[in-house]
Amino acid sequence: MIHSALGSIQPCQPCLLCQVCAAAIAQPICGGCHRDLPWCRDTRWVQDLAVQIAFDYAWPMDRLIHLYKYQDRLDLMAVLQFGLTQLQRPDVDALLAVPLSDARLRERGFNQSHELAKRLGQAWQIPVWTGITRLDGLRQKGLSRSERLQNVANVFSLEGKSNRSLPTRVALIDDVLTTGSTLLSLTQFLKQHGVQQVEAMVIASRQIK
Length: 209
Ligand SMILES: [Zn+2]
Description:
Layout: E1 2-3, E2 9-10, H1 31-36, E3 39-46, E4 49-56, H2 61-70, H3 77-85, E5 94-97, H4 102-108, H5 112-124, E6 132-134, H6 145-153, E7 156-158, E8 169-177, H7 181-192, E9 197-205
Helix pairs in contact: 3-5, 6-7
Zinc ion (ZN) binds at residues 15, 17-18, 20, 29-30, 32-33.
């Protein structure tokens, strides 16, 4: 329990990571955990796509992302969202989570990036766009970078028949950056359909600096 300036007693906010009382601060983690996270807070270029990155893919973010995606630890979304909101707010018309295929969606039960995009959209007052679907059946594992790019270029499709409602400027939201091939292919796809500006934001990067 902590005492507020007015003298009333309020329950403390336990830190989502260490459970220690984090006091009445407007973030889900305590100062110590905040300091210890593998912050990146940098923009890297994947070819001509600017990707803002919140963290390096290192302990404990690697574990947190895994728990969030595969163990239904949706409570950890607050930490991931907090990391992304430490990046520069994108100057775009819409946020777009990298879509999962229907098969992957059934397997996981939810698209973790879309859930994050919705929270970010609320925080930043930017609409979340869901006009892209991803076709089933194309696995990327074991393919070369160029094979992956070619593969993914054929994977996305627009929902509906008209392109008229496409946003002009889009920020892609994804969890982990590895080769960036999916982000690049989705960017290529969007530009082919008239989106003029695409940038990306990811929670963590596996790339070597
Ligand atoms: Zn903590």
